[in-house]
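Reopening this ticket.

The earlier resolution said the output was attached, but the attachment link was broken on my side. Pasting everything inline this time so it's all in one place.
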Amino acid sequence: MLTTLKRWLGASPSRPAVVPAVDPAVDPEPPEAAPGLVEAKVEDIPLLLEAARRAEEEGLSPWVLRDESRLETLRRSLEFVVHRGLWLQREADRVAHWQGRLLALRHGDGPVLGMLLVCRRDDESAWQLRFFFIASEWQGRGHGARLLLAARRELMGTPLQTRLPLQGAAPASLAAAGFRRMHVDAGGVASFEAPVEWNDQRERTRGA
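Inline output:
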């Protein structure tokens, strides 16, 4: 299994994160209806796996999922994130244990609207946004930007970085959530970074 992990799991931070086309505009919602960001559950993982498979069909997945064994390995790694808060990241000839979080945007106990996976080497490092998506039935309602804004506040005090191709609505969702485009490589993959975001309510709670 270690060989499999070294070969494909946890692609380097240069691999793009992707999101299906999402309307970047954030439509106003009454406060009681606003979705919130919560820790994902094991039962939410199939939604991410399906989104990753769809992304791969478009040539945009950060993972290679050509067969069921690779998909199963990714599933076990995501379960490891949920249970242990650790992401298995390939580094040269070994697999390192990075901090990892799998977060879901949902309406209370209602359905998951979208999810994202972030990881970082240690407490001093920026979070890397590895993959995010909005469920197909919830696209076109501004949830892409809403998901990213919620993540910035959840990870307060730390920059958030990602890389993805300049195609589709994903870059616009990032821009709507306050991400800055840093540069674009020869392959058309852009680097984005969101500066530190503070959640004022949580900060007031800490200071109380």
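Reporter confirms the inline version is readable. The first strand starts at residue 36 and ends at 39. DSSP finds six helices and eight strands in the chain.
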